[in-house]
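Before relying on records like the one below, remember that each one covers exactly one chain. Contacts with other chains, cofactors or solvent are not represented anywhere in the record.
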Amino acid sequence: MDANKTEVDNIWAILKEMEPVWTTTVLLVPCSVVLTAGFLYVYSLVLGLLSKSSMRNKVVVISDALSSLGNECSGIFHKGGARLILCGKSWEKLQELSDDLLDTSDPSVTFPPKLVLLDFGNTEALPEAIREILESYGCVDVLILNSSMKLKAPAHILSLEMDKKLMDNNYFGPVTLAKGLLPSMMSRRSGHLVVVNSIQGKLALPFRTSYAASKHAIQAFFDCLRSEVAGSGISVSTINLTFISSGASGKQKDMTFLSYLYTKKPLGISPHEAASEVAKTLANKRKEVLMVSSLPKVALYARSFFPNVFFAVMAAGVKDTTNTKMFREIMSVRAKSDQMAYMLSSRYWLPVEHDRQNRRFTVSRTSGTGVNETAVLNYRFTAADEVDLVSTFVPEACRGQGVAALLSKAAIDFVLEEKLKARVSCWYIRKYMEEHPHHDYKAFQIR
């Protein structure tokens, strides 16, 4: 009995000696998790405060202040006390933006924005715009290049003129502006250039040949420039994202691998998310930022390490049924209208531009009298995932040339890509849907 009691006492003594070790181990893990989470939270708060305070009194140029991203950046930097130079194609809209900023800010801690007309498509007017920018405050601290022209079409129907227009807007224009402002930055040994670029500057997808080429070009230029100006105290940052969407919620949606890469765009980034990332990039001076989900990142690695597999997947995606429908539609339009076929296959092919901020699609062409005519399709959001396709205006000079069909297709593609529901109030779009019954267009329509 005494032997058993002694053995129990020994075990109990050993457990008492081990108790501090077990207690420390058990408490250490959750405490470490809590401390790490707290540190990351505090770090994000500090970084957010620094990104705002670091812009005070800085001269910031936004190349397309009228876009959704430009609008968000304007609000963030204006409230942060930056000296803004807002650029855009429309003087009236720039004034409206300036008035909105002034109405919602404290004039004692902010500066009234300077306005400069800037159109990258008009390269001849860029030297005058650069002169106005430099004369506004005598220097530039930050240049945000956020403008872009988008186009999706098979390579064989795109004219060389359209390729040149894309390169002017997406490459030559931004490069000309950067070159014009660089000497001022280099003389002061201070400056930061931020390029908001597409993921297609690194990853090219089918039916975006010219667009991807322009994005690859701008990416390569600023990657080279980063090394050239590193010794001059100038920072160069590139932000590659999928696309900016006003309706982006950040929630993943179920889709297959191929449909993710081909038939549907990867989920977009909200303007606020993109603008916040621009502010953070300026604060921490990161050289490169990828604002994409995991699948595009996997595709980037596959392109680098398994190119044969990557290209095989690309080729297989082209054969997907959605793209087959697209080609069938082009062929049906050609069969229906010789004039429309001429527009699609010749140098007079017209692009559709999507103005997300003003919620409209436009097609512009020059009439025989030299007057620029613009057809417009307007829409509006009635809920987070619902739109009303309101109206379409087609000038007399554009009628009978398939312009309404181009606008209707662009609007419907937008609804499908964003996975929205739509109320079709526009007669042109209803007519287009009736003429293309092989598409399941009624699935998204609100009755």
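Confidence is low (pLDDT under 50) at residues 249-266, 330-348.
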